[in-house]
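Teaching note: in complex prediction, the entire set of molecules is handled at once rather than each chain in isolation. The prompt given to students was simply: 'Predict the structure of this complex.' The entities are:
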Amino acid sequence: MIKFIHTSDWHLGANFSVLPPDLAEARRQEHRKVLEELADFAIEKKVDLFLVAGDLFNSSNPGSADITFVKNLFAKLSGSNIKIFIIPGNHDAYEVGGLWDKNDFDANIFKGSNISSFEIPELDLSVFGYPTRRSNRHERIISEISKTNLEKRSKNSILLFHGSWENFGREGEKDYPFSTDEILKVGFDYIALGNYHQFAEVTQNAAFSGNPVGLDFSKGEQSKKSFIYGKLENGKTQLLAIETSAKKFLTQNIDLTTLSPAQLLTEINSQKDNNKLIRFELSGIASMEMLAYLPSLEQDISGLFGYVEIRENFTSHITADSNTYLGMYCKKLQEKIDAEKDEEKIKIYQKALEIGVALFNKI
Amino acid sequence: MKLLKLQLQNFRKFAKAEFDLSSSAVLIYGPNEAGKSTIHQGILAALFGIGAPSAGLFGKEKLKSQEGGVPRVALEFTSKGKEYKIERDLEKSKAKLYKKSLSDYVLESEDLKTVNQFVLKTLGVSSAAIFNKTASIQQADVALISDIFDIGENLEKIFAGEGNVSLAKFESELEKIRKSLKKERNEKPGELDKLYEQRQNLLAKYFDAQKISSESQHLSEEVEQLKKLVPELEARVAELDALILKAQQKKSLEQKRNELREQWKIVSEKLNKLSELKEKKAKIEEELGKYPTVQDLENQSKLISKNRQFFKLAGFWASAVLSALFILFAFLQTDFIALHLTMAVIFSGLSFSLFYLYKKKTAGIASTDQLAAINKLLVEKEILERSEQMLESEADLRSALENLEFEGNIQNKMLEAFADFEPSTEEIEKWKTELLARRKELQKATEQFHFSRGVLKVEKEGSISPEILAGELNYIENLIKEKEKLYSAVQIALATVQEIKQEYHGECLPVLEKQVSELFAKFTSGNHKKVLLAKSWPEILVEDQKGNFTPESLSRGTLDQLYFAFRLAAADMLSQNVKLPLIFDDPLVHFDKERAKQALDTLSQIAKERQIIFFSHDEELCNNLAKSIKESKLIKLV
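The expected output is the structure of the full assembly:
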């Protein structure tokens, strides 16, 4: 039985620029901590292989501190007799004389411009890998690999690949796209995939590991942050997605249409968690009362989360007595909002309306 | 619009009262505390209830009559040719609206909100506050009559709505936010200004970091190269060092061997000399063997001299005794004297001869010649022995020689190792020159290595990576975008305030100007044709035959007329031209006769076009006013 760790998309060196500098720094620290925990897990489980399916670094020119960190991490794994295999991903793509050539990592790195393999006789295993390059990112590589007659010298075979799965809702992906059918035809005992930031089993023997640490508030980062602990025996794989300890980035939508300020506050309060990095997207239609309240929301919810930010995506339809200043003010801005088509400008008018209403209510 | 009848029940001092108001001028007079203001309040309470903050003159509790009971009000009025009635239960805040159909009031609505909205619609105003500030003129307001210069501000207040919001306050609050975001000249930097500065600094840092980063890359490449070069140089230097050392070793071994050879020569010479000395000594000893030993000779000499002494003494004493005996005999035997004497001489002679003979015989035995020869030999021997002593012992010399030979052998053995190593002097010199050069190179390279590595380390430790700075920049960039949006929003808010102002000025002021002018001309019987304000706002100019001037120079009475003109124009404008009844609560209380007369003239003119409800404590004033108005009604309160 071959035991392995399959991980990908570390994006080491990511600068977490959606967060303020001090929190970004904390995230960078955590990033390394989680990767160390991942290595410790591999050592504890005495795995044979450590597979990194691309995007280990966030760029092709990572900082020396990150390189040193990875070198040390791999040295530790190698010291525990774990064999490491890496393919460059679309972020840290292979270039001649680049990152992967310049540095001496204690690992088996798939370089060049084609699929290649490493043999591990003691495990009766061939590990294949296709290094990502920038020049041919739209090609259907998996389809090509399935047509190539690869010489598999060993009984067991694994492929490392960094590409995009065209499953439901994700058609028209760009980087090395492949379909489930194409994957089914390739014929390896296990295909370790990278590029998607959430765990996904494509077939019984092909899976995305997901990334161990979330990077921002985007959709792909909302899922569990994980890596795969797998076993391979007699051509059958058994996979276990292990969740990491990384703090979560969450985006939550709140429809203001039927909410009072107090209800909004209760809603947000109910999520209170210092481990969450959260973004609230306020949508729907805001009442006059809500508009008057919103400028003080940020202050009212500060300290409830590890990090919190508010995105205002709501609209409003204020009708007020047009014989008063407040009424005239609302009417004017509401007219501007209704006449405007540019989303950005609407947001600015909306903000002006919010500021005005809040001010009128304050003074 | 015209008020018809007011009914009060349990309303302050009126347990039950009814007032007929169906005249174009209702003049209500009575002393203080007679209930004038209560009637005024009753009208307002009937129209607006007492819920709205600015609708009431008194609080809810104060409305109740002394006898208690539920305070109720009812008001009948006409609007656009139709008659209505509003009834209110002021305790429970209930209202009923009736509409007159034929001769009966029919209930129209019992819903408070509907009733209130109906009232506002009928009056043409948006709130009770506006009515209170325009149509209902209270004593305190009238005090403002002279403050014609504040009329602009007073008019603006009408727009403020329920919250009494001042546009100026709103504007200044917005300005505060604007200032906190972005400064204008001579202001403190705002948030955005600080962010711009931060961004500037970060950008500079970022470029520095990038420079350092590329320098670092260059440096680390250099360090990598030096990492290889330094050991190579070290190896070559070590090699040269070894070669030169070997040459030196060989040389010193050879030198040592030569020294040993020299020493060996000396020692063996010494040994030769030693054996020579020994030979000589043997000969001398052989020679000496032929002689008695010096000891024997000396012993003999001593014995001889001892014997000689004995002989000498014995001979002397024997001869002396014998001589003396013979002399004595000679004396005793005088006859034989001669014999005896002769005998004495013979014996003494004999003893002397014997001594002499012994002496002569022993003298030959210890001859000085023999001694001298011996002594000579001994001296020679001593010289030899001294020479021998000067040299080491033979054993020492022999062992030294052995040692030397042993060491010599070692040196030879050692030199065998250098058998194939025979560099020429030129070669060695070349090595030395190269070594010197290589050493310099190595030193330089090592220094460069340590320096570069040091710089690299400092740079790595001291500088933030460009990626991190790029992240911070990105964050600040987004923050700036957010704040800029906010700033734009504030600017739009400010612009909107300006628009409101302009609208107010642009739309209201010309209307106001026209109406004020008309009214003022009417009040002054055409003396003043025009009031100018639309262009000069907030300054007001008055025009007469002579031209334009500021109202300061107008008489007190004319100023009052101007104020009434403003008040009425504003009321008409804000009520969308519903001719609201004007309620005056003792407006002329502080006026002198002349000024009051002028005001009365104005009021009588006003009464031509709309209903006026006039409260006063002054009966005469009311009578005068009644006379000057076509249709009027006097109510006296007691």
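Point out the following to students. The radius of gyration of chain A is 25 Å. The first helix of chain A runs from residue 21 to 44.
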